[in-house]
Amino acid sequence: MPTLTRSSFDWDRERAFAGRVTGMKPSAIREFLKLLGEPGMISFAGGIPDPELFPTDAIAEAASRITSDPELCRGVLQYAASEGHAQLREWIAGHMAQLGVACTSDNIVITSGSQQALDLLAKLFLDPGDTLLVTAPTYLGALQAFGVYEPAFAPIDPGAFVPHRGQHAPKLAYLIPDFANPTGETISREERERLLDAFAELDTPVIEDAAYQALRFDGEPIPPLLALDVARTGHIDRSRVIYAGTFSKTVAPGLRVGWICAAREVVHKVVLARQASDLHGAMLDQAMLHDVVSRRFDEQVRTLIPVYRHRRDVMLDALARYMPAGTTWTRPDGGMFVWLTLPDGIDSNDLLRESVETERIIFVPGTSFFADGSGERHVRLNYTRSDDATIVDGIERLARLVARHADLAAYRTESRPSLAEAVS
Amino acid sequence: MPTLTRSSFDWDRERAFAGRVTGMKPSAIREFLKLLGEPGMISFAGGIPDPELFPTDAIAEAASRITSDPELCRGVLQYAASEGHAQLREWIAGHMAQLGVACTSDNIVITSGSQQALDLLAKLFLDPGDTLLVTAPTYLGALQAFGVYEPAFAPIDPGAFVPHRGQHAPKLAYLIPDFANPTGETISREERERLLDAFAELDTPVIEDAAYQALRFDGEPIPPLLALDVARTGHIDRSRVIYAGTFSKTVAPGLRVGWICAAREVVHKVVLARQASDLHGAMLDQAMLHDVVSRRFDEQVRTLIPVYRHRRDVMLDALARYMPAGTTWTRPDGGMFVWLTLPDGIDSNDLLRESVETERIIFVPGTSFFADGSGERHVRLNYTRSDDATIVDGIERLARLVARHADLAAYRTESRPSLAEAVS
Predict the structure, then answer these.
(1) Which of A9, A71, A259 to mutate to test the interface with B (most CBs of B within 10 A)?
(2) pTM, whole model, 2 decimals?
(3) Residue A377: CA atoms inside 13 Å, Cβ hemisphere, count?
(4) Which residues contact A368 (CB under 8 A, 6 or more apart)?
(5) Out of B73, B78, B281, whose CB is closest to A60?
(6) Across the strands, what pairs with B242?
(7) Domain B20-53+299-412 has what CATH class?
(8) What is the DSSP string of B194-233?
(9) Mean of pLDDT values over B195-211
(10) 3-state secondary structure of A53
(11) Smallest Cα–Cα separation from A32: which of A255, A336, A329, A365?
């Protein structure tokens, strides 16, 4: 093919794209995934399940059961309802009931992972400039999904939120109550009740991202915001809480199946938005998931928890053993992440650039998780995808790098002239 | 659960939703799908393939090959690149080359059916109020996908388009060059060349929806707009044409796999938009499709064509035999639809309401395919999903209903007082 040169047919691509494209940036995490294949590279980056724990036998059996029956096979190969696979929606309604949410399958719509739930909900709720409450930090994929609809992001501290009505009353809120991405922190029951008071006062719908909820290692489960709100309002169809669930962290992300559980009116609008977006999700995957989860969802979760709990412990122990003074981190009761705060003066983006070159560790710098681009002193570490030895080795190498940067930062601080000296 | 009554927690849902929600309406076609199961109902509604022609054996073999190999199975169950399955993208690049489009897999991104391609492209190209050229009529799912981004729809006649630059210069155009949905009509090669002249003059990118392109029954294939534009510009990376393909009409829609083939810069932006929308598509489906199409895509298309060609002929014969005078229709060289124009004075929405009750025939009224809601004299008929006897029976019943409505319309016209009488 000829070399690219300008010609009279070159089109003005800058003029061609919509305004919202300006804010679209590649996900740091998804870009790092490309480095994963490199030999010797240790990744604490993605929120990625351990593929060794995928229920491959159950998946293979389900695939065979469905595709070898011509009637079932034709069923999953044809166009289908935008709401999703009927029996899977029934199963999810039962699952939600176990979490304290009385509902029917009319309250459930299948989405392509919970990422699509965030996109469809932003499409339904956000006009440009609307105030959207998110924690700082929050899930970077949520910032990407919401950012397309050009809201004004405003920070919310789940433990100390005081509602203010008025011109900038929030249009929508987004929270990850259990083992949040990226901090691993959980909102207490008392805080959940106070948040629901505040959202009722503001009449603000809230998205409850429950991606990690099933992965609790320690302590008693706390009811989802949706369960608490259904108890308050008397019926899910009166609740402001919109629950986004997913099988990506419990069964397998490659199937791309999540769901929204909410008031029927919200579900109905999500279905309309999904019709316009992609008609419906892949049906074989939904049928397989129904087959797998109806037979062994609890067993699958029981398999994951001790493994991931142990890896969290290994990572916390290694951090305590190797990290230099001045480094702190969270101690999650579940989920996939530890959130590190580096000694003063270290920028985690600089750290990552050097880490990829020298120590061969990938992680996600904190700046990816803040709507305002702050967070440079933070690092998100994933512990679910590496074995014990890799976790210990990786943390030791990362700690060595942090110590080196801490020394440099301290040197810079010491050798910097004081204000008095500088102006004298 | 308690009866629904207003409570202090009822939220103001009208205030809650975004402005763009106002225009979201259920797809007439997808709503009719719900009537399909009713006994005795004949459907000429959806653009639905015949499930008996799905390659179920090849699908079952592919599913088994992939899921029974633990390594391959874990691969399709894990998170993956937003661009889509690498080998499938390679295969598609080769397929595009056969259509006259020299390209590499860097010019290909997988989408969840071509419906998602339309959503992602609208997201990338359309600011509210931007002028979007569409034929009148056009695919109703395109009107839904684009409508969310609130463009100003403007009609384009592919056979007689005169470009006007200036304030309302079109931001984007959307065409279905082969066997269009809903008319079944094809844009000639000469018209394609003139359209490309016009889009070059306007510097307007154009989406080429190629959903039905492979289903040509008669005559010689015409090169896609993209192929003609690559020949003009010398390289796909300089082309303004964005090709949206799909396996929904050739292999199976339930797998939800389509693709965009375009300049790398456009593909890169689509990948960013897809990251924010749903991360990536279901991977087992893409791997299965690669397995199936790399072994037998041509064979699959060769299986479909004689069956669908025969059904088109059966429908055209039945229309000629049964339809009353004053009814006209298109004679498609491929694809899935015949477009009917009813005798003057008949509204196809009234016809449908009565048809569902009495003759038990479902079809899509023309008004679904016009951005301005006109088209009441038209009816879209699908011939791919019914056997010969059903087509003949259905058209005879529909013709009976049209004849009755035509008589009524003629009676109304005759008994209506003339203007002179009315004002006298």
Answers:
(1) A9
(2) 0.94
(3) 11
(4) A27, A28, A29, A140, A375, A380
(5) B73
(6) B207
(7) alpha beta
(8) HHHHHHHHHT--EEEE-TTTT-B-SS-----HHHHHHHHH
(9) 95
(10) helix
(11) A365
Rounded to the nearest angstrom, the minimum Cα separation between A200 and chain B is 6
Give residue A199's pLDDT band: very low, low, confident or very high (50, 70, 90): very high
Task: For B143, name the nearest residue in chain A, comparing CA atoms only.
Answer: A276
CATH of domain A16-53+299-415: 3.90.1150.10
Residue type, A275: Q
Residue from the list B1, B9, B112 with its beta carbon closest to the beta carbon of A102: B1
Using pLDDT thresholds of 50, 70 and 90, give the confidence band for residue A29: low
Handedness of CA B196, B199, B200, B201 (dihedral sign): positive
Q: Would the CB atoms of B16 and A171 count as touching at under 8 Å?
A: yes
Which of A24-33, A161-170, A196-205 holds the top average pLDDT? A196-205
Burial-class residue B157 by CB neighbours within 10 Å (0-12, 13-18, 19+): exposed
The predicted structure's pLDDT at residue B2: 38
Asked whether the beta carbons of residue A277 and residue B15 sit closer than 8 angstroms, the reply is no
Beta bridge partners of B381: B338
Express each pLDDT in B145-200 by its tens digit: 999 999 999 999 999 888 876 667 899 999 999 999 999 999 999 999 999 999 99
User: What was the pLDDT predicted at A347?
Assistant: 95
ipTM here: 0.93
Q: What pLDDT was estimated at residue B35?
A: 74
The per-residue pLDDT for B58 is: 98
Contact B16 A205 (CB under 8 A): yes
Please give the radius of gyration of chain B, using alpha carbons only, rounded to the nearest integer: 23
pLDDT of residue A241: 98
Under DSSP, the state recorded for B410 is: H
The pLDDT > 70 percentage for chain B reads: 92
Query: Which of B269, B279, B291, B368 to mutate to test binding with chain A, by most A CBs within 10 Å of its CB?
Result: B279
Q: For chain A, what are the domain ranges?
A: 16-53+299-415, 56-295
Chain B residues closer than 8 Å to A46 by CB: 79
User: Could you tell me how many CB contacts below 8 A there are between chain A and chain B?
Assistant: 305
Candidates A285, A336, A382: best to mutate against B (most CBs of B within 10 A) is: A285
Judging contacts by C-beta atoms under 8 Å, the chain A residues touching residue B284 are 63, 254-255, 282, 284-285, 288
Closest CB from B46, B59, B116 relative to A79: B46
Taking CB atoms and an 8 Å limit, are B54 and A74 in contact across chains?
Answer: yes
Q: Per-residue confidence at A9, pLDDT binned at 50, 70, 90?
A: very low
Q: What is the pLDDT of residues B39-63, one digit of tens each?
A: 889 999 988 999 999 999 999 999 9
Q: What CA–CA distance (Å, rounded) separates B313 from A321?
A: 78
Architecture of the CATH domain A56-295:
3-Layer(aba) Sandwich (3.40)
Residues in chain A within 8 Å Cβ distance of B141: 275-276, 279
Dihedrals φ, ψ of A419, to 5°?
-60, -40
CATH class of B56-296: alpha beta
Partnered with residue B260 across adjacent β-strands are B109, B244
